[in-house]
Sequence to fold (125 residues):
Amino acid sequence: MAKVIAAHDVGRTINPTLAEGQIEGAVHMGLGQALSEGTQLDAEGRHRNAHLTDYKLVTASDAPRIDIAWIETDTPNAGPKGSKGVGEPPCVPTAGAVANAIAKVIGARVHRLPMTPERVWEAGA
Fold:
């Protein structure tokens, strides 16, 4: 089973349940960006997958287990009680981590998102 470990400096956690949901959602968003969520355009620049039936979002059945490592640092000039944002930072490293894993396995880099099976195949050929 796939697993993601997400370590985040949150300053001070005010609502652990909410923060956990934000981090998990952002990791799923990063996985979608990395692997499946791509806009397809025709030769005239019109969307070929303009509807959710044609645009592959990460669903619960696609989601790996996510373990969160909380890093709390004293940050007095941050948000309320020293808290920091947790909603978007987990999106940033996720696609890069997936790209590094793919490159390690196939010995080549995929230089375009999403890293579809076709693009992975072409990069490794």
Observations:
- The mean pLDDT is 88.
- The helical segments are 16-35, 91-106, 117-124.
